[in-house]
Every structure is written in C-alpha cells, then in structure tokens.
Amino acid sequence: MVGLTGTGNHMSPRDGRTPDERPAPVEKGSDMHLMIVDDHPLFREALASAVRLAFPAAAVEEADGIEAACATLSRLRSVDLTLLDLTMRGVNGFDGLIAIRTRFPRIPILVVSGLDDPRIVREALSHGASGFVPKAAGKAVLTRAITDVLNGSIFVPEGVGAQEGEAPRGGKPPIAQRIAELTPQQVRVLLMIRQGKLNKQIAHELGVGDSTVKAHVSEILRKLGVISRTQIVIETANLDYDHILSESSTN
C-alpha cells in the first residue's frame, strides 16, 4: 500500500501538450480531477485516501479495469491525471497503459505498480507513461509524483537511470563516459532538455537557430546511444548538473 518513504527524480515534459495548454503549476491546495485504475478494492481505496489527504480539494474517480476507465474518461472530460496499475485481470503486459494512452493522449498517466524493476519502469515510460511510483513508496513520493506530472514533468523513482560506472545493457559505455564525448554546447543543450525546454526555447536562450539546436540534439542522441529525448533524461536521471558539467569540462 501507499505506505511511505523514498524520493524521486522529475524530468522533462512529455504529455503531448504545449506550454500554453498545460495547467498552471499545481500546489497542494489546488483543485484537480484524478482517476485511479486498480482492480484491488482495498489498494484502490487506500490510494484514493492518500490522494485526498495530500490534495484535499481533489476530485477522485475510481475504476476497476481498463474498460471502466475508458468509459469514465469518455464521460468526464475534466480528468487531469490517471493513476494506473499495470497488473490487472485481463490485461497483458502494457496493453492497458497503451489502450488508455492511445484513446486519451492528452491525459497524463502515472503508473502505480508493485512491479518496480527498472526495466519495467523504463518500458512503461517508453509506452507513454508520464511517471512511475512503486506501491511500496511513501505518501511523500506519491505527492511529489502527482505534482510533478501535473506540472508537465516525467517522474521516476530513484535508481532508474543508468548509474555512474555501470555498463548498461547492450554493451554501451557508462553514461558518464558517453557524456564526456559531448561538446560544451551540447552539454548546455542536454541540461536544457533535462529541464523540459523545447527546441525553440533552447535556441532563444543560446542565441542560435532552431536548425542548430536540432543538429545538437541529433548528436546528443547519437553519442549517448539513445533514440528519444525521454531516453536522454532517463539515462542521465541519477547525474546532477555539476557532475555533467565536470565531465564535459574534460573535453
């Protein structure tokens, strides 16, 4: 149950909305409309209670399966966030996540699951989840995750990114070694990607053209051995800004 300890990382936006379409920053007293999808009544009720305790003004819907969740989302256009369990009766793998994400692409999904293997977390994010909270996590982590996701960030628990000195699957060098291959300007772009900034924003801050930023992003993807901006922030999730800057300064 949502019982409680731990911290997490928040990363860049990936909910399909432009900055103007995203809601104002969420605070604890904010009105919000959430839906919890879990086929275990006791956990669903406990999670709903934890959400209401953290966000007293929140409206909370409950669904015991994907079909019921989709029906509720079709009926209630005001839902801001879906909290989804991955393992439910009649659901294979990530099918439930994919189904909701496909039908309602503008509603972010925060996975709350007992399956907290880092590979599962990464897979959930790759299928469009905006965050992941283990069921063993504490209320503080849940509150942080909901707040971050509603503010347009991606939330992952500590320990999901490739650790310094760890050789990731596929034979890639440690993330710190790959970051050391970036130029100083590429490092600046990387840091802005981690902050959730769009190419136009990065171009404005660096005083360069959009095409230059796109070229830098392509090189960052190539050098880090990843295929998306989301993977960039996941791979570097456990490295702080000072570490990244220090690695780049050795170039």
UniProtKB/TrEMBL annotation:
Biased composition regions of type Basic and acidic residues, renumbered to the chain: 12-27
Coiled-coil features, chain-numbered ranges: none
GO terms (BP aspect): phosphorelay signal transduction system; regulation of DNA-templated transcription
One GO MF term attached to the UniProt entry: DNA binding
Protein keywords: DNA-binding, Phosphoprotein
Annotated region described as Disordered, given as residue ranges: 1-27
The HTH luxR-type domain, residue ranges: 175-240
Name of this chain's protein: Two component transcriptional regulator, LuxR family
Organism annotation: Methylobacterium nodulans (strain LMG 21967 / CNCM I-2342 / ORS 2060)
